[in-house]
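User: Could you write out the 3D structure of this protein bound to 2'-deoxy-thymidine-beta-L-rhamnose? I've included everything you need below.
Assistant: Certainly. Input first, then the structure.
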Amino acid sequence: MDIRYFYNIAKDRMKYGCDLNDFHDLKTGKFLKSANQKMRLNLVMSSVNAKTTYGGGATIYTFFQQLKDRLNCDVRVITLDDSAQESNIGGVFADFRIAAPSEETEYASTLVGYPENNGERPCLMIREKDVFITTYWTTMYVAGYFRAFQDRAYGQHQNLIYFIQDYEPGFYEWGSEYLLAESTYRIPDTVAVFNSEELKNYFDKYDYQFADRFWFTPKLNRPMKEYLLQAMDSQEKPERKPQVIIYGRPRIWRNCFSLVVASLKQALEYEEKLRGWQFLSLGASHKDIDLGYGAKLVCKGKLTLEEYARTLLETKIGISLMCSPHPSYPPLEMAAFGVNTITNSFLCKDLSTFSKNIISVDNATPENFASALVTGMNRKTDLMDRDDPYLQDEDQFSEIIDDLIRKLKKENAGETGC
Ligand code: TRH
């Protein structure tokens, strides 16, 4: 949540004496028809950062780049905030140009700002053959209006492609935002693309009626894979330090920071041998935390991918929780690098099947995580086998991209220029 979110809450409390979210960020503006008959892929983002090289953002850009390369058609990235700036022309947007939302352009790849101001967004030009790929529930909600305009203006619409990386109603308490987020899984004529089979299986339990579903299995990102393969080839293996690392993101609720800290404290109470160990928190910045018995959780923040990889090779135990059916990436990375990895199970998720280096705790209590941590102290682990699927071609979309392309081309049958 950015500062504007809290400012709006404070302003409303003053005005109404209660919290009243009028869902500014779900508003749209006016739309304009276009005479351009060419198909165009539109990636709708809540924000863009050209320098993104890891995590959920990098996965989105890799997916979009593959579709762009295979379809060889115009593309437009629409961001719902004001991050469509020259400073973002580079990195993953190297061959893009900034364009106005309400105009056609001669550029094949454009980055367009579509920010909301006082409940209004700019006028947006929409082609008959615009295909929208959405990446977060608010982008899907707004794209529903884009498609309604296509129906009104052109008498037909394309499938929406919903790139789903988590069950996002779970980011909220049960309430207004939960229901609005959940409503985006019920928009007709939607093709869902799930990040992981676990997440796809979870959605299947809700029996949403998607027009079609695809899913892909996460793969280790290239920089970390290169580092790991070098470590596999080198003769001397780094000494595993008596060190515990955690995926520590206090402001990302689903990573359960408080539960991890409580588990570390419990483990230190149980097991005297742990009291001489190091405890490092990776992933976000926060103050160091006293764990008792002379131990401290030292925050290292978000390391570079290379520093992160090196740290994993030198670490005996890792704890990375994710209150979601999605595995999230760090537990997978820790296990690949031979760390005794402790995580939580969830409906449709048991990561002990992903790697023998993972202890998946079913009953998520500090006592049980502490007990798993003590088990991890005495457990021998190895680097992941080189032929493990997680380390094969990092093209995680290879199994679905052909079918998706066929579907898109069929939908735009008779299209010229693609
Ligand atoms: O991008 P993220 O927010 O990850 C998302 C969310 O977890 C989402 O719930 C999930 O569904 C989606 O991924 C698939 O998380 P983050 O931490 O921005 O990205 C994780 C990557 O960060 C990890 O793959 C490696 C990298 N990383 C570092 O570069 N340095 C570090 O110190 C750590 C701990 C991770």
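The chain has two domains: 10-218+396-411, 222-391.
User: Perfect, thank you.
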